[in-house]
Amino acid sequence: MNKNIIAVAVGALGFVLGLGFLGNAIKNRNKSENTISVTGLGTKQFTSDLITWSGSFSKNNSDLKAAYDELAIDRKVINDYLVSKGIKQSEIVFSSVDIQKQFRSYNDSNGNYVQGEFSGYNLTQKVSIESKEVVKIENLSRNITEIINRGIEFTSSAPSYFYTKLATVKQEMIAGATKDAKERAEKIAENSGSSLGSLKKATMGVIQITEPNSNEDYSYGGTFNTSSKEKEANITIKLEYEVN
């Protein structure tokens, strides 16, 4: 009989504890639902203050030393041309020379690819410039045909644009996004007859940098447009507030 009494007592205690846990769960659930989650947006438009540009040139010759010598002549012509256009010597960087062996190839009577005899060397070198004189380098990249007209086999790449004060822009956008989110939360609370409580959680999104008024897609890891001199940056801040 004592064992039965103990079993009933234990069961009753478990029932009481269970009701307590259930009550706390309901209370906590209701408390967690009594919140407002809002997302604020911070934007900023700016003009790039750093530009990079590059081009490559090459020479072909069956003799490796002769190819090197010819490439060196072209390198000097290119360097002197860039300096004559006001580019600082310290901003001009020439890469190491890339060497590729060339072979005469053909398809045999059965259509199989056949690598034929050695036909010479192809030497390629790259020149690159990084400068804060954005307009000057832009004009240079557009008029690079002047080098081609000198008999040099030169291929120019499109310039890339960057901004050196991005950290400052990001701070301004975060402040703007946070203010925007808080104002939204206050308006929602006001319209529902409540008041905004303490901030529970803040989550920041990734920065997205695109060309203004473009249809560029945002990416999960962030977008960084380098093809446009004019840029627009966006960032989101998600805030979660308690509501009183």
List strands and helices in order, with pairings:
Blueprint lengths: L1 H32 L1 E13 L2 E12 L2 H21 L7 E3 L3 E10 L5 E19 L2 H9 L2 H4 L5 E3 L3 E3 L3 H26 L4 E9 L3 E3 L19 E14 L1
Helix content: 25-40%
Which secondary-structure class do the elements indicate?
alpha+beta
Number of strands: 10
Biggest β-sheet: count, sense, barrel?
6 strands, antiparallel
Classify the beta-strand content into a percent band: 35-45%
Please characterize this protein's 3D structure.
The structure is a single chain. The longest helix has about 30 residues, at about 1-35. The protein folds into three domains: about 1-30; about 35-45 and about 165-244, Protein of unknown function (DUF541), domain 1 (Translation Initiation Factor IF3, 2-Layer Sandwich); about 50-160, Alpha-Beta Plaits, CATH 3.30.70. Strands 2, 3, 4, 5, 6 and 7 form a six-stranded antiparallel sheet that branches. Strands 1, 8, 9 and 10 form a four-stranded antiparallel sheet that branches. The relative contact order is 0.21. By secondary structure, the protein is of the alpha+beta class. The protein starts with a helix and ends with a strand. The protein is built from five helices and ten strands. Strand 4 and strand 5 (about 115-130) form a beta hairpin.
